[in-house]
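Quick one: Ferredoxin, 2Fe-2S from Rhizobium miluonense, structure tokens please.
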Amino acid sequence: MSEVVFVDSAGRETRVSAENGQTLMAVAVRNGIDGIVAQCGGALACGTCHCYIDQRHLDLLPPPSEEEADMIEFVMEPKANSRLSCQLLMSAATDGMRVIVPDSQH
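--- reply ---
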């Protein structure tokens, strides 16, 4: 188990528990995180699970695949720390990770 902190556009934090092996998207959806829409259910086809990962944890994650990087190009407000939460698996390395939900998805 690990903890993830979701931060909305107003700076409000929601701390949730996550089981290792789950996708960050599944954790967000299960906990009703506003702004992680996940329209395609994790099929890497829509970008509605876009988020920003705090730099401290971003460097601990595997880099995005070519498919994820291509999809990120089409989200609103992409940044260097943009990721698709459907592509991120929870692990010991993600414990305490801060995930910022883009304002454009609220």
